[in-house]
Amino acid sequence: MFFYSHVRERVISTEIDKLLSLSAAIGIVLMAMFTAFVLILLPFVVYADGIVPADYPDAQLINDGRDIFFNETFDGNGRTCGTCHPEDNNFTIDVKFIASLPDDDPLFIAERPQPNPLAENFEKPEMMRKLGLILENTNGFDDLENNFTLRSVPHILAMRTSLTPPSNLANDGTSNPPDERTGWSGDGSPSDGESLHGTLRDFVNGAIKQHFTETLNREAGEDFRLPTEYEKDALEAYMLSLGRQQEFDSFNDITLVNKTAERGRLNYMGEGMANGLPCNACHFNGGANTDPDFDFPAGITPPAFESSNRSFAPRVEELIDQPGDIIYGENMPFDDGFGSGSSLFNVPTVIEAADTGPFFHANQIDTVEGMIAFYTSQRHLRNGEVLSPIVGLNGSQLVNIAAFLRVLNADENIRSAIQLLDYAIQLDQYRDKKANARLAKAQIKDAIGVLQAANLHKSDAVPALKQAGHQIKQRKYNKAIDALASIRLMMINR
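Structure (tokenized):
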């Protein structure tokens, strides 16, 4: 009996082993089939790699441009485009941001110990650290010791709306205007025969030669390399993707909930103005272009009825007692604006003004209120001249307009945060989701800051913004988007 029982157990065991082997074989075959199936399908699955979702127009080009912007040194001194245009500081630098950087940051390349070929005539370190100014050789590199100026770093938001030069009919006094308006004086992009046409796409060539070089010889192929055509395409696409993609709503079609800000809207449009030009004439709907319906006095700019990005000569660089002169110990090198000697400077947008200060091309003024006061006050110049106000508004109206601009800025912060969170929801990679969420939180922080600085919407929008920030931290992106959309309605009636 034991024998037969033992034989039966061996037979059963053998059968079980066969079944297990067969199951394993079937499993291997199924796994192989599944793997083959996945490999066949994989080329057709698109995964985003970057902070812009893959199905967004030009997503690959924009994401590549962002990578180049923040990581490519072009074989130069270690700087990237993001060195002076950091995305978590609204693509500009100020004294507070500069103070947060480590001493070995490429921004401070001129401060490195000898032997340092950039120790002289490349930057003015004291002016950079104390006022946020960068050395520019706007009129060429022939006399580095004497022929330079010091400028602040402009933000690069909403550039898609601010590059259009005036037509010949509206020529504003600039000679040989470039194809597009870039930089503080509207001529920031180099022009060189058939290859460079003064466009945003060409801007990187001039920026690399000025700011990325290893020595003051500035020899391409030795001190840096120039960008490839694809790199220029990608950088242009990325920069154009930043901020507003279209003009703000017509200021005639909105009202602001806060009464001071609403009165500021009307003052901005010219109501209550004693004389001069209304703000809206040069900054149409808060942008960088002129009001196509405004009849400009011929002595200021040709009264051509078009919306284009013109240049003007407010003479802010001639103000007496401006911060640069005080810190420099004497009058700063004169900045002659567009080209050579025109004193013309390009009009920037003001929708983004409140969180991108200080203001003007050499950080002459710190606050939004001070910036408006420049236009509404007498201008005392170095040579003793006293010029009348450009905009005939009083002190109360100045405060009204500042409140108006602050609310507009906060609204744009919120719009941007919503877009960034929408991107985060669509993306596959956690690191890209996290990057968008981080930038959205920075936008919310800015919105809170510009409102709190003037006690605006302290009982509704500000606490709601703080709550939205907490929702982002908890990765409740859809809830945050809904909350942010409702906050915009708390501030502006559209």
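The beta strands are 134-136, 149-151, 191-192, 196-197, 255-256, 311-312, 345-346, 379-380, 386-387, 492-493. The first helix runs from residue 2 to 41.
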